C-alpha cells in the first residue's frame, strides 16, 4: 500500500463506459485513492478521447502508455472498463504487472480471452472480481433461503434480468433472426449483444447460487424490440436452458425491452424449485409505490450517441428524469457493497466470490449459448 495507507486505483475506460460509475465507487471507499486514467498507446482514438474526457472531469492525469502506468508503484488496483474486445489482453497484462484487477462485465469477449485473465491472475497471485449482482441485498436473501434448506433439495432455478431502457417497437415484425456462432464484435454506439451484456447477470447469479458447473447449454436469440440491435446484427433478447451438475435444470432470460416496460430499471427475479417447495424473489419487492398528482414518466429523446440509455453522462446530457413510481427500500448501498467486498478480499488475502476463474464460466456458458442458437443443437461443456 501507499505511504498514506490507501490503495492506488488506475482507471481504464472513460466516458460512455461503466467507469463513470466505478471511479466514483472506488473514490467513495476510504481505503482507495484514484491515481490516473490510462490506455494503450495504440488504443482506439475515440476510446482514448473519452478516457481523457473523464480524466479531466475528475481532475486526474491521463497516462498515454499503459505499460508506464502499470509500472507505477502507487498503482495497486486496475479498474478495467475498456471495450470488451480488448479486455482479455489488457486484463492479463494488468495481472502480469502484479496489479489486482476489477473487471467490468462481461470480463471478456470469449472463453479464450477469459482464460488469459484467469491464467495471469493465478500465476501472479493477485485478486480479481467481475461486476455482478451477487452482493446486492436481494441476492443475499435468495442465497440465505436456498442454504436454509426450506425448499428441500434444489431441482430447478430460473433467473430473469431485463433492462427497461431504449425505445422499442422498431424491430421488423416477423423477421427471423439468424444467429452467428461467435461474436466478432461487441462494442457499438447504439446497441450491445443483450444475451451477453444483460444475460451475464442472470448466468452469474445462477452459477453463484448453485455453486454447480454447467454441463449442457441450449440457447436462442431474437430481435423483438429495437431496430438498432437488428441493424448491428445483435440480439435484444436471449434465453438459455442449462443442465447443471447433479441434474439441476436452470433457465435464464436476458435482454432489453424498452423504457416503459417496467416501473423501475427492469425485471430482476429468481425462482427456486425444490423437492419441498418453491420460492420467488423479486429485486423490486421491497419498495414504496408512489401515487401523486405529478406527470407520468416520459421516455427521453434518444441521445445520438446512446439511444439505449446505457451511460450516466449521456442521460444527464439530455436531462433524463428518473422514474419515481417505485422507490427502492433498503438497497441504496448495494453498489458500494460490491466494491467494498473486492477491497475486503485484497485486505484479507481471500478470493472473491466472483473472481476471474469463477466469472469465466459465465463467459463460457454464454458463448456456448450463441453456438447453440446458431446451430439449433445442445452444446456440451467439458
Describe this structure in words.
The protein has helices at 19-28, 45-57, 66-70, 84-96, 111-124, 137-148, 194-197, 199-210, 227-232, 312-317, 334-348, 356-375, and strands at residues 7-12, 32-38, 62-63, 77-80, 100-103, 128-130, 154-163, 214-222, 237-244, 249-256, 268-274, 278-282, 287-289, 326-328, 379-380. It has 382 residues and is α/β, with parallel strands linked by helices. The protein folds into two domains: 7-126, NAD(P)-binding Rossmann-like Domain (Rossmann fold); 137-335 and 365-380, Dihydrodipicolinate Reductase, domain 2, CATH 3.30.360. Strand 1 (7-12), helix 1 (19-28) and strand 2 (32-38) form a beta-alpha-beta unit. The longest helix has 20 residues, at 356-375. The chain is globular and about 55 Å long. 46% of the residues are buried. The model has no long low-confidence stretch (mean pLDDT 96).
Brief write-up:
The chain has 382 residues and is of the alpha/beta class.
Assigned CATH superfamily of the largest domain: Dihydrodipicolinate Reductase, domain 2
Q: What is the terminal separation in angstroms?
A: 40 Å
Q: What is the chain-wise order of helices and strands?
A: EHEHEHEHEHEHEHHEHEEEEEHEHHE
Describe the oligomeric state of these chains in a short phrase: single chain
Low-confidence stretches: none
Helix % is: 25-40%
Q: How many β-strands, per DSSP? A: 15
Average pLDDT figure: 96
Secondary-structure map with pairings?
Layout: E1 7-12, H1 19-28, E2 32-38, H2 45-57, E3 62-63, H3 66-70, E4 77-80, H4 84-96, E5 100-103, H5 111-124, E6 128-130, H6 137-148, E7 154-163, H7 194-197, H8 199-210, E8 214-222, H9 227-232, E9 237-244, E10 249-256, E11 268-274, E12 278-282, E13 287-289, H10 312-317, E14 326-328, H11 334-348, H12 356-375, E15 379-380
Parallel strand pairs: 1-2, 1-4, 2-3, 4-5, 5-6, 7-10
Antiparallel strand pairs: 7-11, 8-9, 8-15, 9-10, 11-12, 13-14
Amino acid at each position: 500500500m501507499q505511504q498514506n495507507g490507501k490503495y492506488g486505483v488506475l482507471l481504464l475506460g472513460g466516458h460512455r463506459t461503466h467507469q463513470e460509475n466505478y471511479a466514483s465507487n472506488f473514490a467513495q471507499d476510504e481505503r482507495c485513492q484514484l491515481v490516473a486514467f490510462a490506455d494503450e498507446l495504440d488504443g482506439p482514438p475515440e476510446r482514448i478521447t473519452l478516457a481523457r474526457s473523464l480524466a479531466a472531469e475528475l481532475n486526474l492525469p491521463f497516462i498515454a502508455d499503459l505499460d508506464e502506468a502499470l509500472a507505477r508503484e502507487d498503482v495497486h488496483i486496475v479498474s478495467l472498463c475498456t471495450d470488451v474486445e480488448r479486455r482479455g489482453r489488457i486484463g492479463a497484462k494488468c495481472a502480469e504487472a502484479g496489479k489486482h484487477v476489477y473487471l467490468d462485465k462481461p470480463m471478456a469477449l470469449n472463453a479464450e480471452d477469459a482464460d488469459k485473465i484467469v491464467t495471469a491472475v493465478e500465476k501472479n497471485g493477485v485478486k480479481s472480481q467481475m461486476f455482478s449482482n451477487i452482493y446486492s441485498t436481494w441476492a443475499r436473501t435468495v442465497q440465505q433461503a436456498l442454504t436454509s434448506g426450506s425448499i428441500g433439495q434444489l431441482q430447478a432455478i430460473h433467473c430473469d434480468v431485463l433492462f427497461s431502457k431504449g425505445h422499442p417497437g422498431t424491430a421488423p415484425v416477423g423477421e427471423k433472426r439468424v444467429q452467428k456462432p461467435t461474436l466478432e464484435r461487441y462494442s457499438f454506439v447504439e446497441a450491445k449483444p443483450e444475451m451477453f451484456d444483460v444475460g451475464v447477470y442472470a448466468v452469474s447469479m445462477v452459477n453463484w447460487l448453485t455453486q454447480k458447473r454447467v454441463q449442457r447449454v441450449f440457447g436462442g436469440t431474437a430481435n423483438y424490440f429495437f431496430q438498432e440491435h437488428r441493424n448491428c446484427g445483435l440480439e435484444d433478447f436471449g434465453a438459455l436452458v442449462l443442465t447443471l451438475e447433479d441434474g439441476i435444470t436452470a433457465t435464464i432470460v436476458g435482454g432489453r425491452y424498452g423504457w416503459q416496460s417496467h416501473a423501475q430499471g427492469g425485471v430482476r427475479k429468481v425462482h427456486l424449485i425444490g423437492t419441498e417447495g418453491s420460492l420467488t424473489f423479486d429485486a423490486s419487492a421491497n419498495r414504496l409505490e408512489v401515487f401523486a398528482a405529478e406527470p407520468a414518466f416520459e421516455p427521453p429523446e434518444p441521445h445520438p450517441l446512446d439511444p439505449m440509455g446505457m451511460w450516466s453522462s449521456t442521460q444527464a446530457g439530455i436531462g433524463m428524469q428518473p422514474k419515481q413510481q417505485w422507490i427502492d427500500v433498503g438497497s441504496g448501498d448495494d453498489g458500494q457493497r460490491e466494491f467494498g467486498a473486492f477491497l475486503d478480499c485484497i485486505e484479507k488475502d481471500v478470493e472473491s466470490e466472483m473472481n476471474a476463474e469463477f466469472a469465466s464460466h459465465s463467459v463460457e456458458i454464454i458463448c456456448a449459448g450463441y453456438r447453440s442458437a446458431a446451430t439449433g443443437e445442445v452444446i456440451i461443456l467439458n
